[in-house]
């Protein structure tokens, strides 16, 4: 365990977003008792904003490589972070905050880095054609190193893989032991089989003393072994069992009798 508890200490007179979220109305504290904590609830329940606030208070980077304080889309997260008090068992600098949309931004960034490095190497070949091999090698070195590092981390490139395969490559390449990982709907680009692969990666890293706090609508991800599940459909959020999660119940009932649902639509 790394993060032990989060407490809400905001002045009661605050009337602006994100403090108007229902989840914060009676919220006092939330404890993390296990290496994996799942946050569930309907859209608009405030769980994503809550996780963003923890990420900002933890000084974790957004997975695409920028600080939350530098992300214009997350100004509200910094406001909430100032109203949260985090209690640590062991503070770590390893980890990140991941939203599904950050993966697309990161792929585009990596693609541009690769294209820029390849273009620079072409320019060097032309500009240094009459110079020594040593001079050409020294000029080429940083760009060649960039390409080598990208290949080491992501093989031939995240942009040439399927969306789900690339996401798993990206996630596994950036994960480190003893890290805190805050994941917002990581199942979005993943098929059910790839979700099982993600579960395997998470469980392997838990063995390396990492902690995960995950928002999900997927009954597959919710089934992570020995995870605590907090429902944000009640205020304050409450611990519930897997079988009590509404998403699980609806999915189970639908799969048992899809037509009984569809005929009413």
UniProtKB/TrEMBL annotation:
Single biological process term from Gene Ontology: double-strand break repair
A GO CC annotation given for this chain: plasma membrane
Major subcellular location class: membrane
UniProt keyword Nucleotide-binding, yes or no: no
Keywords attached to this entry: Cell membrane, Coiled coil, Ion transport, Iron, Iron transport, Membrane, Transport
UniProt domain AAA+ ATPase: residue ranges: 33-239
Molecular function terms from GO: ATP hydrolysis activity
Pfam families registered for this protein in UniProt: AAA_21, AAA_23
InterPro entries: AAA+_ATPase (IPR003593), ATPase_AAA_core (IPR003959), P-loop_NTPase (IPR027417), Rad50/SbcC_AAA (IPR038729), Siderophore_ABC-ATPase (IPR051535)
Coiled-coil intervals: 107-134
Compartment annotation: Cell membrane
Mode of membrane association: Peripheral membrane protein
Name of protein: AAA family ATPase
Organism whose genome encodes this protein: Lederbergia citri
């Amino acid at each position: 365990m790394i993060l032990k508890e989060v407490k809400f200490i905001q002045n009661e007179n605050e009337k602006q977003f994100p403090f108007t979220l229902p989840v914060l109305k009676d919220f006092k504290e939330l404890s993390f008792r296990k290496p994996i904590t799942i946050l569930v609830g309907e859209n608009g329940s405030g769980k994503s904003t809550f996780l963003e606030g923890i990420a900002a208070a933890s000084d974790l980077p957004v997975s695409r490589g920028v600080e939350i304080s530098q992300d214009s889309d997350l100004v509200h997260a910094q406001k909430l972070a100032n109203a949260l008090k985090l209690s640590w068992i062991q503070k770590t600098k390893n980890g990140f905050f991941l939203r599904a949309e950050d993966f697309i931004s990161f792929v585009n960034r990596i693609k541009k880095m690769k294209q820029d490095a390849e273009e620079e190497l072409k320019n060097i070949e032309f500009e240094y054609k009459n110079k020594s091999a040593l001079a050409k090698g020294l000029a080429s070195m940083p760009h060649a190193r960039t390409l080598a590092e990208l290949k080491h981390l992501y093989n031939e490139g995240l942009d040439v893989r399927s969306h789900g395969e690339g996401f798993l490559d990206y996630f596994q390449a950036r994960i480190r032991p003893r890290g805190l990982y805050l994941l917002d709907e990581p199942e979005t680009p993943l098929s059910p089989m790839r979700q099982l692969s993600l579960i395997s990666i998470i469980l392997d890293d838990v063995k390396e003393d990492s902690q995960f706090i995950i928002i999900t609508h997927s009954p597959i991800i919710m089934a992570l072994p020995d995870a605590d599940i907090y429902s944000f459909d009640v205020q304050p959020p409450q611990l519930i069992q897997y079988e009590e999660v509404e998403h699980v119940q609806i999915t189970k009932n639908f799969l048992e009798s899809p037509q009984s649902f569809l005929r009413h639509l």
